[in-house]
Amino acid sequence: MITGKNHIGYQLLGNGTTTFQTFNPIANESNSWTCIEANSEEIEKATTLAWSAFKTYRKTSDAQRAEFLETIAIEIENLGDELINIYTKESGLPEGRAQGERGRTLGQLRAFAAMLRNGNWKGATIDEAIPDRKPLPKSGIRKTNIPLGPVAVFGASNFPLAFSTAGGDTASALAAGCPVIVKSHPMHAGVGEMVASAIVAAAKKCNMPEGVFSNLNSSGIQVGVQLVKDARIKAVGFTGSINGGRALFDLANTRKEPIPVFAEMGSINPVILCPKALENDAVKWGETYAGSITLGTGQFCTNPGLILGIKSEHLDTFCTALIEKIETIAPTAMLHPAIQKAYGQHKEKVSTQTGVEQLTKAIDAKPNYGEQSIVRVSGAEFLNNPNLHQEVFGPFSMVVECEDEAQLLRIIEGLEGQLTGTLIADQSEWNDLENIIDELQQRVGRIVFNGVPTGVEVCPAMHHGGPYPATTNSRYTSVGLHAVNRWIRPISYQDFPAELLPQELKHNYDLSAV
């Protein structure tokens, strides 16, 4: 049962006067439950509890936190089909997607638990003392990483589970030893409450300090603003729009003590189609990208929104195959009427620019459904019009016809930072890719070869980040085990007796004891 209240530590509170309802985009109606936005006193209580909890939680062992994360996963599983039911009602996404995202969420939690159990993830470094070194003795210096403090996590609209209440930001911060306060996304507050109840249940079972986790409802920006301005919050995790992420970044830097904001914000994810690859497989790649562009109604941060190729009959064949395939795919619901409206506005703005050719036919889609759209423009027009460089969040992509490789390279060089870049190339072209790869390396966080950018594997080697404005800090990832590095900082101990050192810095360090 959804109460609509806020999880403040171990309490359910709903003393605020601002209420809202989530929306079912398929039924085109509000859901029955009413959610209560956290008021100022409740936010204050959550941050006070988090700061108090940090003093204890940061000293828990890796094994204790691993058990906590594993128990969260079990408690989420115990929510059963009701979680899937609420997920679909609040997002318009199908049951299969809900089940898959739940699996990914559980996998992330268990992956971080395994990381804690299996090794020296803190990067412990030991430099032994050399007291008889000439002309000066060398001190013994040992370095490890410690948690930053309470973290504010902003749930994402497009991933109600994997990037929200118990998603990668929360899992990695809890693994690091940081309490978490989630500002639940208003589009899926019911899912947020259910998952929050699982985290709180796990915290109680594992004897974690009250305040290690809280979940706040919010229909606007005030809850988030108060959270980020609170001196007890030491870092922020965000997945969403460029405007939202940048606003949080700027706000965090106006504090007396500025704090890091790790925001993953937006990307058009350029795809480069090399000539020989198109000559051999234009139809295959056109059909493949029709599926990638429409996957999840295009509501992925890795949606291939820009396709670059050199003008040729084979590029025309690719476009024909892309259009023929994409027009056979039935439109699907977007997450919310507001997102569908924004998609329509951004699509219209781009489509009406000078030199832009609309390739797909208009479809009489149902309310809140995303009508897929493919446009084409010349390389010269693209270079001269910055309005064509912006993300259109939805099932949209732009094909750019370049005159030659030199123009294609200028386009890549002029792009803003991106999460991904994709190369489609035949083996006979591999020796000619150096310049393109060099340019992509400067613009993206992940290069995909002969594939699609949609689908982000959760593994240690994954980097889900990129130069600004894809993220606020290109050195960090929000997916994979290295996401934990956002919530820790290095500290060195010089000439310390072994008895006073953290466990990982002691001689004869035993990983199994951590």
Read across the widest sheet, the strand sequence of neighbours is 17-19-20-15-14-21-22
Range of helix content? 25-40%
Radius of gyration: 24 Å
Major beta sheet, specifics?
7 strands, mixed
Q: How many angstroms does the end-to-end distance come to?
A: 38 Å
Shape: globular
Helical/strand content category: alpha/beta
Count of runs of 4 or more consecutive helical residues: 14
Estimated share of beta-strand residues:
15-25%
Average per-residue pLDDT, rounded, comes to 96
Unreliable stretches covering 5 or more consecutive residues: 509-514
Tell me the total number of β-strands: 23
Structural commentary:
The structure is a single chain. The chain is an alpha/beta fold. Helices cover 37% and strands 18% of the residues. The protein has 14 helices and 23 strands. It has helices at 40-57, 62-78, 81-91, 95-118, 168-176, 189-205, 222-229, 242-252, 275-294, 313-326, 337-351, 379-384, 405-414, 434-443; strands spanning 6-8, 11-13, 19-20, 23-24, 29-30, 35-36, 125-127, 141-147, 151-154, 180-183, 213-216, 235-239, 261-264, 270-273, 306-310, 332-333, 357-358, 369-370, 373-378, 396-402, 418-424, 444-449, 488-494. The strands form seven sheets. Strands 17-19-20-15-14-21-22 form a seven-stranded mixed beta sheet, sandwiched between helices. A five-stranded parallel beta sheet has the order 11-10-9-12-13, sandwiched between helices. It has a three-stranded antiparallel beta sheet with strand order 7-8-23, with no helix packed on it. α2 (62-78) runs antiparallel to α4 (95-118), α4 (95-118) runs parallel beside α5 and α9 (275-294) packs parallel to α10 (313-326). The longest helix is centred in the first third of the chain and has 24 residues, at 95-118. It is globular and about 70 Å long.
